[in-house]
Amino acid sequence: MDIKTTYPSNNYTIHVGESILHHQIEAYSKKYDSIFYIIDSRVYDLHKEVLSFIKSPVLTRSGEASKTPEEYIRVVESLLEKGIKRNSLIFVIGGGATGDAGGFSASTVLRGVDYIQVPTTLLAHDSAVGGKTAINSAHGKNLIGTFHRPKAVIYDLDFLNTLPESELLSGFGEVFKHMLLHSRDKAKTLIRDTENGILIPDLKKYLIKGIEIKRDIVTEDEHESGKRKFLNLGHTLAHALEYKYKFPHGQAVILGLYAMMTISNEFYQKSIFDLPFYYEYFDQLGYPLHYLKEMDIDEMIRLMKQDKKNQKNDYIGFILMNDDTPEFKEIEEIKIRQYLNALKESI
Amino acid sequence: MDIKTTYPSNNYTIHVGESILHHQIEAYSKKYDSIFYIIDSRVYDLHKEVLSFIKSPVLTRSGEASKTPEEYIRVVESLLEKGIKRNSLIFVIGGGATGDAGGFSASTVLRGVDYIQVPTTLLAHDSAVGGKTAINSAHGKNLIGTFHRPKAVIYDLDFLNTLPESELLSGFGEVFKHMLLHSRDKAKTLIRDTENGILIPDLKKYLIKGIEIKRDIVTEDEHESGKRKFLNLGHTLAHALEYKYKFPHGQAVILGLYAMMTISNEFYQKSIFDLPFYYEYFDQLGYPLHYLKEMDIDEMIRLMKQDKKNQKNDYIGFILMNDDTPEFKEIEEIKIRQYLNALKESI
Questions:
Q1: What is the SS3 assignment for A105?
Q2: Which of A23, A260, B111, B218 is at a distance of 20 to 30 A from B153, taking alpha carbons?
């Protein structure tokens, strides 16, 4: 299945399917003088046979560890050491973190070299679309980066078969978010299809739908001045939680989505979300909802204020759902404190 | 004097004049919620009174020392520490190096924040125009960076009065290059006006002309796929020389221009440049031409091959002057070796 972006120009294709990796890499490589690979070291170990055709990859530390400034510099220097040129092509193979950091390396080495995202996790179906690149700062996640579109995304679903449970739960967080952005009904269909656990074959159609939902939003608002903010649904608290407790991004997103549900109900003063229904579903799938009970609210607020979307002091920007319509609201810090206290006590 | 860029969109103004700093900073600051300053620490010391209105600047190591990856990360973390937001504005105050590195910080913090270049050297009349940002790699100069236009350039010529002789010589290298790109006649007029030394008041009209020449080239070819390469006149060898011998950039450019003259004469097999005339002029102004005698040619070639403009192995891209027309030529390594040997022996 090929999904094409719909920007006014410089479009690219998101290829989704089983066993498509070799063919697509070969096809894209033809147009370039030299090819480079940035690969998550763990992915490289897990898929040694499939990736054995790659002779001299730049291996990065696995997962979030690839997003430190030091690791970024090391990767860029390795690419230069290996003789990268402006008309080279870089394939970035790994999960969301590898994609973010590899994309940032590609966008800044020699002031920008073409690159292709090869996501290997469920989560990366999200981050590989939209052309945002990022590394982490000592002051928060994703605070350093660029907007730099890939030349293509090759999403070979074979990679998903080796995902550990915690990664599956993490990636599912973004899938769930995309459905919720569409409508509560769509989310409920997904819930029905995963009542007995998350199985990759059942998810394929939701992955494609999720990519399309995201594609449509980022096409309209590439540089996040309006609608793109909606993709941040659940993320404001999620970033603070994962920064503090160091658990997988998409799992934190589920916790953030649950917090968003309770805040939306309060903010709009109507019962948009059936909280016990969602709580039980998330709990039964194994999400660590207990962090919502344990969190230090002062600390969460301090971390949330670092968020790039915040424009005003003493206010925190949140995406809420007004029934099935996402809305960006700047909420007073004091109100947020109340909402989070209530949430904490309800658990 | 205001010079406006002529891109299809997102144009900006280059303000050139005496004592324009305060007024312009005030005017641009009005449109933003918060203002940040990245300032070369030496410039800040030298101009403490003029800059005393700035309360909490991010001071950077002076000159090229600001362009290490470590210093880049430190500056970005300081901006975040001080609470920079997406709708903040950054003024980058300093020479060419500060502008390059400060521009890179601005273009990557929070995925890009608006910035204004405030060049304080002669050299920076060049680097502040065109929207290239850069830091240095262990493998060569300017190998990491972005294309990111400033919102304006404020070129207050008062800063030039405190320039030490070596900086004056350095900046003059790019002024001379711009005139040569226009024509040998233009270069000769500049030579006539500087026979008795380089004086700022005499240079003003050449600075403005230089900015216009550069502006016209970068407008036509922002991302350096064609004509913009011409601005690299003299730079291929210059980058290698300054990397090796650590002397000011623009001084190396003069040496590189002299090498370009000898290569152009050889390559086109006609006497385009009167070599003894230029040699004597550069020598009398005090340029360290002796490095052309001392340089290790193998090492220079190795360093030149790192240049971003090189697309093919065993060839090095040079900008040559065919009479008054700049041309990009990919020259075999073996030929370059011959040319440089001949140059070395002629000195």
A1: helix
A2: B111
Query: Among A33, A109, A140, whose Cβ lies nearest the Cβ of B311?
Result: A33
Q: Which fold has domain A172-346?
A: Dehydroquinate synthase-like, alpha domain (1.20.1090)
Of these residues, A15, A149, A228, A305, which one is catalytic?
A: A228
CATH topology of domain B2-162: Rossmann fold (3.40.50)
Instruction: Give me the interface pTM, i.e. the ipTM.
Output: 0.83
Give contacts of A10 with chain B, Cβ < 8 Å: none
Cα of A229 vs its chain's centroid, Å: 13
| Per-domain boundaries in chain A | 2-162, 172-346
Separation of alpha carbons B145 and B124, rounded Å: 17
CATH of domain B195-346: 1.20.1090.10
Provide the pLDDT confidence category of residue B179 given band limits of 50, 70 and 90. Answer: very high
- Per this entry, what is the length of chain B? 347
Q: What is the DSSP letter of B23?
A: H
pLDDT digits (tens, 9 = 90+) for B314-330: 899 999 999 999 999 99
Beta-carbon separation of A143 and B306 below 8 A: no
Answer whether B77's CB lies under 8 Å from B52's CB: no
For A93-136, the pLDDT digits (tens) are 998 899 999 999 999 999 999 999 999 998 888 877 888 999 99
Task: Find chain A residues with C-beta within 8 A of B111's C-beta.
Answer: 132-134, 145-147, 308
